[in-house]
Amino acid sequence: MPSTTTRADAPIAILGAGVAGAAAAARLQEAGLPVLVLDKGRGPGGRCSTRRGADAGRPSFDHGAQYFTARGPRLQELVARWSASGGVQPWTGPYLRKSGEVLEEELPSTTRWVGVPGMNQVPRLLLGGAPTRYGARVTRLLPGGRLELQEGAEVLGPFRLVLLTLPPSQALELVRASEVLAPLARAAEMVPCITWMVQLEQGPARPFSGLRAPAEPVSWIARDSSKPGRGGGEAWVLQLSPEASAEVLEDGEEAWRRLCEPALAAALGAPPRIVHSAFHRWRFAQRAEGTDLGPAPEPLDLEHGWGLAGDWLRGGRLEAAFDSGTALAERVVAALS
Ligand SMILES: Cc1cc2nc3c(=O)[nH]c(=O)nc-3n(C[C@H](O)[C@H](O)[C@H](O)COP(=O)(O)OP(=O)(O)OC[C@H]3O[C@@H](n4cnc5c(N)ncnc54)[C@H](O)[C@@H]3O)c2cc1C
Question: Is residue 123 within 6 Å of ligand 1 at its C-beta?
Answer without folding.
Answer: no
